[in-house]
Amino acid sequence: MMELLSRDDFKDTKIDPNWGPFGYLLYVLHVDQLKLQKSHNAPPPPQTLCKQDHTGFKLRFKFNNSVGLKRKRNLKAVEEEDDGDWVAPKLKPKKRRKQEKSVCPIPPTNLPPKFRQLIVEDMGGRGLVLVIQKTIFFSDINPTASRFSIPFSQVKTHDFLNDAEAKELDDKNPMQVWLLDPSMKGTNITFNKWVMGSSSLYVLTNTWNPVLKNNQLKKGDMVQLWSFRVNYLLCFALVKL
């Protein structure tokens, strides 16, 4: 029958103020093992003292597996830890998920001075807004499609439209606007909004192919589309970077 510990079992105990909770627990287990060994007329288990560290005075015991606790770490690992030479095991680096290669975007730049002078000083334009900065893709130079796409996901702001213009586009009514192309020549072009499944985009259509040809735009070119107003009418400027 198992006997409980009493005060008499701890009468010769010298308490070290540096012991932490774990140290006290180990010492109680040690006393319990001594008492159990005495009841079986067996020699006491060996005791090993470890050096003091910031957690207090730690006690380490070797227990008989038949009556004590089984150690989960091997002796070599414990000794290395006690000597202060323990090194954390090397962890296998986490495999990074493969990601599709993306093109690093060029930070938006200001409107070139020659465009600003033409728009603001010569044309009396106001309210310049950067609508999008993007790379020309194959779909933009496809002569069959004849359109320049402005995906919502890349639009800097939709505030270049007033409420009446936004409603016209929502009602599927295209707008005729004035476009200043990279060569600084003006042309009329159709501005529309398309909804394709869960994606939406603005488009410049109809006279887009002549703009491509006259400015020799090709796949991979970086361009900016700016909006501005002349006498409250919506206009655009296409700038090649």
TrEMBL record:
Keywords: DNA-binding, Nucleus, Transcription, Transcription regulation
Gene3D superfamilies given in the database record: DNA-binding pseudobarrel domain
One Pfam family cited in the UniProt record for this chain: At2g31720-like
Keyword Nucleus: yes
InterPro entries in UniProt: At2g31720-like (IPR005508), DNA-bd_pseudobarrel_sf (IPR015300)
A GO CC term attached to the entry: nucleus
Subcellular location, record wording: Nucleus
Location, primary (coarse class): nucleus
UniProt KW DNA-binding keyword: yes
Gene Ontology molecular functions: DNA binding
Protein name listed in UniProt: TF-B3 domain-containing protein
